[in-house]
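Appendix C reproduces, verbatim, an entry submitted by the partner laboratory led by Prof. M.T., so that reviewers can inspect both the input and the predicted structure.
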Amino acid sequence: MTKTVLTFGDSNTYGTPPATARGENRRFGPETRWPAILQDILSPDWAVIEEGLPGRTTCLADPVMGPHMDGQIGLRIALESHGPIDLLVIMLGTNDVQLHHQSSPDQIVGGLARLLAIARSEPYQTRHGGFDILLICPPPVLEQGIYRDTLMGARAKSLALAPLVAGLAAHWGIPFLDAGAHISSSQIDGIHFDAQDHLTLGKAIAAKISAL
């Protein structure tokens, strides 16, 4: 029987290419995006659902992009509009390091803990007949490119995340993957992944899921 994995994240799950100008609304094709690569590798045993929203945070509204950037809202919608799922993959935190959110690494991990609490809650587990969670820490950002103004101090915060997110996953007893051990944020805009990194990440996540 085919199992279903829901990939929940931000623009790097959506497939936004490294940007050179603000206001771009580009997306890599399905042959490039890591969730689609994951599908190709895991098929036919798994079906992959892509739930990436550019700008999404763990638990914060965005002053420009809107309140729906709060991952708590998006996760509830995703869990109620898809299913049943067997595995939830969460990769968030990149947008939380932006200066205007004023979030510390500990607060970002707290935002991820909120998402885990929602996903592990009895109503959603019952709704889907039970599902597992894979928590992924995104790679550290670079303070350069067109997003540089919003990334003041972001590099240091994002560098601190991996061990904290790993500790959170260990405490909850769920699998963890450090994306930064496999890929890097683009030198072009400091945030997004290039095509090769999507391929590398898709392979790494597929290997992790296959080993669960």
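The CA atoms of residues 58 and 112 lie 6 Å apart. Additional entries are available on request from the coordinating office.
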